[in-house]
Amino acid sequence: MKTGRHPKRPDPIDAHVGSRIRKRRTLLGISQGKLGESLGITFQQVQKYETGTNRIGAGRLYRISRILEVPVSFFYEGCEDAEDGSAAAGNDKDDPLAAADDRSLLEALRAFSRIRDPELRQRAIDLLKAMADAETS
After folding, report:
1. What is the pLDDT of residues 10-57, one digit of tens each?
2. 39 and 80 inside one domain
3. Helix 58-67 × helix 32-39 angle, to 10°
4. Full residue range of the structural domain in which residue 54 is found
5. Which residue, among 115, 97, 118, has the nearest Cα to 106 in the 3D structure?
6. Maximum CA extent, the chain
7. Separation between Cα atoms, residue 7 and residue 87, nearest integer Å
8. Do the beta carbons of residue 14 and residue 52 sit within 8 Å?
9. Claim to verify: residue 19 and residue 55 sit in the same structural domain
10. Does residue 94 share a domain with residue 109?
11. Listed residue (63, 136, 55, 50) closest to 90, CA to CA
12. What are phi and psi of 100, to 5 degrees?
């Protein structure tokens, strides 16, 4: 059965799943090497999974979900868009999570998640909103 895709390009679903793995791994501050070590594979293999170059077996995807502390379904969220190409690999500009490939955003999310004081968290949100408003006006 022909899929209509170029044989050298990753399947859009594989690329989407890999992108979700990369975003979650980066958000948690886990290196490709550390994830690979936990799985008993090389960091190069993790790279291939994250780009969609290599497919991930069900058992390994389950182990990845346990390491990254998300359900397996997390990796498939939004894959309907990836399959039809409308937001393949998280490129939907209207989706703030699509920007999660941006390292600075992930660093900000990690730092923000460490703030425990609710008032301080709200002040950080207010500051970011004010900065964004100033940028757009």
Report:
1. 899 999 999 999 989 988 889 999 999 999 999 999 999 999 999 999
2. yes
3. 120
4. 1-98
5. 97
6. 57
7. 20
8. yes
9. yes
10. no
11. 50
12. -65, -5
Q: Do residue 28 and residue 45 come from a single domain?
A: yes
Per the structure, the count of domains in the chain is 2
**Could you tell me the CATH number of the domain that includes residue 67?**
1.10.260.40
24 and 69 in a single domain? The answer is: yes
DSSP letter for each residue of 22-73: HHHHHHTT--HHHHHHHHTS-HHHHHHHHHTSS---HHHHHHHHHHTTS-GG
Q: 115 in the Ramachandran plot: left (φ > 0), alpha (ψ -120 to 50) or beta?
A: beta
Q: Are residues 29 and 57 in the same domain?
A: yes
Tens digit of each residue's pLDDT (9 = 90 or more) over 92-134: 445 555 555 567 777 888 888 889 999 999 999 999 899 988 9
Residues 42 and 58 in one domain: yes
Amino acid found at 50: E
* CA-to-CA dists, residue 135 to 78, 87, 99, 117, 128, angstroms: 30, 26, 18, 27, 10
Q: Alpha-carbon dihedral of residues 125, 127, 132, 137, nearest 10 degrees?
A: 140
Question: CA-to-CA distance for 114 and 19, rounded, in angstroms?
Answer: 24
